[in-house]
C-alpha cells in the first residue's frame, strides 16, 4: 500500500526564519514520483515540484529546496528566509509509476508571522 | 499562462437539489481528475478520465454522483440529490498523457449543502 505521512500538522515561524516541512512516504514500487503542492489561503493548489525515484539530487529553486533521501523514504521541503507570503498549507504527494493516482499527505499548515 | 478553470467558484444549495460543477482543463491535456477536499478526509480522488473515457470512479459515491466529459474542453461533476455531507471543496485537475506527470489544479468549487 502507498502512504504519505506529514507528521507536522502546523508550524509557526517568524519572518526570515528557515523552516523544514517533513514528508515520509511508503511504497513497494521501485519507480515512483514525489510531489509538493502549496495551498495558499485563496484555496487553489499550486504545483511546486516533481521528482522521480531515480533522482536523489537535492533541488533548489530560489528560497525553496528539497531533500530526497530514499534510505529514509523522506522528501523534505525547506524554505529559507521565510516570508509572510509563504503562509499556506503544503501537501506532499506520491504517485507510483504507471499510475495516474496521487496519494496526498494530510498537509502541514505553515504560518509565517511578520 | 494556461490554467484549469472551474465554475462556479462557490455554490450554496439546499439538500435534495441537483448540483453541477464544471471544469475546463488546460488545452492539450487529456487526463482530467476530480478531487474532493474536506477537513476530515483531506484530498480524495473521486474519478478521472483520459481522452474523455472514464478510467476510475471508484472513489465516487455511485448512487448520487456522476462525472462526464462531453467534450475535450469540458468535464462535469453532478450530485443528485445533494446532501449536507457533500459539503466540501471540489477540485478539478488536468495533466498530459504521460502517466505520473504533473497534475495542475483548478481553483476549486466550494459547495455548501444546507
Write a concise synopsis of the structure shown.
Chain A is an all-beta fold. Chain A has strands at residues 3-5, 10-14, 19-21, 24-26, 32-39, 46-52, 59-61, 64-69, 74-79, 88-96, 103-104, 108-113.
Can you characterise this structure?
The complex is a heterodimer of chains A (114) and B (114). Chain A has 114 residues and is mainly beta. Chain A contains no helices and 12 strands. In chain A, the strands form 3 sheets. In chain A, strands 2, 5, 6, 10, 11 and 12 form a 6-stranded mixed β-sheet that branches. With 114 residues, chain B is mostly beta strands. In chain B, 0% of the residues lie in helices and 54% in strands. Chain B is built from no helices and 11 strands. In chain B, strands 2, 4, 5, 6, 9, 10 and 11 form a 7-stranded mixed β-sheet that branches. The termini of chain B are far apart. The chains are: A mainly beta (114), B mainly beta (114).
List keywords for this structure.
heterodimer, A: 114 residues, mainly beta, six-stranded mixed sheet, four-stranded antiparallel sheet, 12 strands, globular, B: 114 residues, seven-stranded mixed sheet, 11 strands, 0% helix
Low-confidence stretches of chain A: none
User: Based on the structure, what is the oligomeric state of the protein chains?
Assistant: heterodimer
Overall pLDDT score of chain B: 92
Largest sheet of chain A: 6 strands, mixed
What proportion of the residues of chain A form beta strands (DSSP E)? over 45%
Show unreliable segments of chain B.
Answer: none
Order of helices and strands of chain A: EEEEEEEEEEEE
**Distance N to C terminus of chain A:** 41 Å
Number of helices of chain B: 0
Instruction: Give the termini distance of chain B in whole angstroms.
Output: 36 Å
Molecular shape of chain B: globular
**Sheet having the most strands of chain B:** 7 strands, mixed
Strand content of chain B: over 45%
Number of strands of chain B: 11
| Share of helical residues of chain A | under 10%
- Rg estimate of chain A, integer Å: 14 Å
Amino acid at each position: 500500500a502507498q502512504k504519505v505521512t506529514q507528521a507536522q500538522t502546523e508550524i509557526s515561524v517568524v519572518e526570515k526564519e528557515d523552516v523544514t516541512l517533513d514528508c515520509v512516504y511508503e511504497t513497494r514500487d521501485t519507480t515512483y514520483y514525489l510531489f509538493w503542492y502549496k495551498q495558499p489561503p485563496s484555496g487553489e493548489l499550486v504545483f511546486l515540484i516533481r521528482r522521480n525515484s531515480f533522482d536523489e539530487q537535492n533541488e533548489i529553486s530560489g528560497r525553496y529546496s528539497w531533500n530526497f533521501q530514499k534510505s529514509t523514504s523522506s522528501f523534505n521541503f525547506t524554505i529559507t528566509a521565510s516570508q509572510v507570503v509563504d503562509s499556506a498549507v503544503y501537501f506532499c504527494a506520491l504517485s507510483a509509476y504507471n499510475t495516474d493516482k496521487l496519494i496526498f499527505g494530510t498537509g502541514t499548515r505553515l504560518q509565517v508571522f511578520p | 499562462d494556461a490554467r484549469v478553470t472551474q465554475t462556479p467558484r462557490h455554490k450554496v444549495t439546499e439538500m435534495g437539489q441537483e448540483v453541477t460543477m464544471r471544469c475546463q482543463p488546460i488545452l492539450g491535456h487529456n487526463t482530467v481528475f476530480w478531487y474532493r477536499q474536506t477537513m476530515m478526509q483531506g484530498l480524495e480522488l473521486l474519478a478521472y478520465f483520459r481522452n474523455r473515457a472514464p478510467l476510475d470512479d471508484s472513489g465516487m459515491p455511485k448512487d448520487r454522483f456522476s462525472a462526464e466529459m462531453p467534450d475535450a474542453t469540458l468535464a462535469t461533476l453532478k450530485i443528485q440529490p445533494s446532501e449536507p455531507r457533500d459539503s466540501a471543496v471540489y477540485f478539478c485537475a488536468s495533466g498530459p498523457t504521460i502517466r505520473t506527470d504533473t497534475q495542475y489544479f483548478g481553483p476549486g468549487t466550494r459547495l455548501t449543502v444546507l
